[in-house]
Amino acid sequence: MPILDIKATHNPHRWYLPVEERLCVGPPGKAFMFGGVGLAAGVQALQRTTGRPLIWATAHYLSFARPPSIVDLDVEIPAPGNSVSQARVSAHVGDKEIITVNAALGSRDLDISRQWVDAPKVPPPQDCAPVEHWRSDGSDLHGNIELRLAQGRYGFAHSAGRGASGDGRIIMWMRTRDGLPADAVTLAIFADHVPGGIGNALDLHAGGNSLDNTIRIVNLVETDWVLSEIIIHGIHGGFAHGAQRMFASDGTLMATGSQSMIVRVHEPPPKQ
Which of 13, 85, 164, 258 is 20 to 30 Å from 266 at the Cα level? Predict the structure, then answer.
């Protein structure tokens, strides 16, 4: 079963997504749909409606969707274009808009394919320590994504005894547990892991709430494991700004992402 699969309606420009626990994060009783799932659902709706591949998309997070609500996804294509469609999605729960996604989709015939960014040199995923989310019981979104840490620490807890990297950067392998190759929808979910780098950057039990999430597709190749390099650029005035680069296992740069976040510093979790 794919990690995300929106549902069609009689209207080819409207889709919907049941908010199930496996798409959510957060403490018991206060779970909410992971922001990256909202962006990914928008990407999926846009690609299916236009029939074109994603170039870039950005999500503006306005509110939360909590289980077991239904998210309606309304697609508008104000500029269809010959090779590029400029489009947007409004995601609602009832009459309340929770996410707005703006995007460009399309492709062009140009026989040039190059990249100037190299994948970090790290051990393969089987040689990296697994990351378990301190607040997850495995039934939420965290249980549907496997993380293997190569540098720094991810999230709140010091994973596998690792401390902060000291340079605001973490590197980890990511894949979904459905066994399917990573596509634009999967990468949109992965791109919302930048807040997990705040604790590493500050060397504190800290994280963040996303204000936005942007993904830019470079070159999609078949791979299950994705090597993610997350960099927190700066924190000031209660807000953090960071970016992410996502590579296939062969070193191909598949996509980049960026976010601005509200910084949250928490009490350390109880020791096990």
Answer: 258
Q: List the chain pLDDT tens, one digit each, 272 residues.
A: 789 999 999 999 999 999 999 999 988 889 999 999 999 999 999 999 999 999 999 999 999 999 999 999 999 999 999 999 999 999 999 999 999 999 999 999 999 999 999 999 999 999 999 987 655 567 899 889 999 999 998 865 444 446 677 889 999 999 999 989 999 999 999 999 999 999 999 998 899 999 999 999 999 999 999 999 999 999 999 999 999 999 999 999 999 999 999 999 987 765 65
Residues in CB range of 38: below 8 A, 6 or more apart? 59, 61, 65, 71, 91, 98, 99, 101
- 190: part of which helix (H) or strand (E)? helix 184-190
Distance between CA atoms of residues 186 and 142, nearest Å = 14
CB 226 within 8 A of CB 187: yes
C-alpha to C-alpha distance for 43 and 56, rounded to whole angstroms:
9
Rounded to whole angstroms, the Cα distance separating 221 from 11 reads: 32
- What are the φ/ψ torsions at residue 75 (nearest 5 degrees)? -100, 130
Query: d(Cα 17, Cα 157) in Å, to the nearest integer?
Result: 32
In order of their start, the domains of the chain are: 7-106 (2.40.160.210), 125-265 (2.40.160.210)
